[in-house]
Write a structure and sequence with these properties.
The protein is mainly β. Helices cover 6% and strands 44% of the residues. The protein contains one helix and six strands, in the order E-E-E-E-E-E-H. Strand 1 and strand 2 form a beta hairpin. The relative contact order is 0.20.
């Protein structure tokens, strides 16, 4: 599990949603955090969300305190998420995904723009042979129309 970049402030993140579900004998969890941006946005933008999916959850201890703050600890054998007010989620595996429509304005987004190749202008269309038309009165359709 990769931690979010330096552009995101987990010290003030707040829990928006927590779901723990049982699948057979295992527990899974989805934790959604509202993460403060460490960069300015030009216009009102939806909040940056960090979605954390946890698999084979062992411990869940969550009491919302409203104070904010999250620490992600991805060790070699387990992932621990320490929540504001002393809460803890512990799991054997997981992943996180940052959902931020303003990410391109962050330092990481600008670095990615500098090395990303731009697509050629306009659509690229390749035709291997001219299209054949099919007259339904013919006995058999052309090869391109046979399924």
């Amino acid at each position: 599990m990769e931690e979010p970049g330096a552009d995101d402030d987990l010290a003030t993140a707040t829990v928006r949603h927590l779901t723990v579900e049982r699948g057979g004998s295992r527990l899974t969890a989805l934790l959604q955090l509202v993460v403060d941006r460490g960069f300015a946005v030009e216009e009102p933008a939806p909040p940056a969300l960090l979605n954390v999916w946890l698999d084979r959850v062992g411990d869940v201890d969550f009491v919302p305190s409203g104070t904010g703050g999250v620490t992600l600890d991805a060790g070699s054998r387990e992932i621990r998420v320490f929540l504001d007010g002393g809460g803890l989620l512990r799991a054997a595996g997981g992943e996180c995904h940052l959902d931020d429509r303003s990410w391109h304005l962050s330092a990481a987004g600008r670095r990615a723009d500098a090395v990303t190749l731009l697509a050629p202008a306009g659509p690229v269309v390749r035709v291997s042979r001219p299209a054949e038309t099919w007259d339904p009165t013919r006995a058999r359709p052309p090869r391109c129309c046979v399924t």
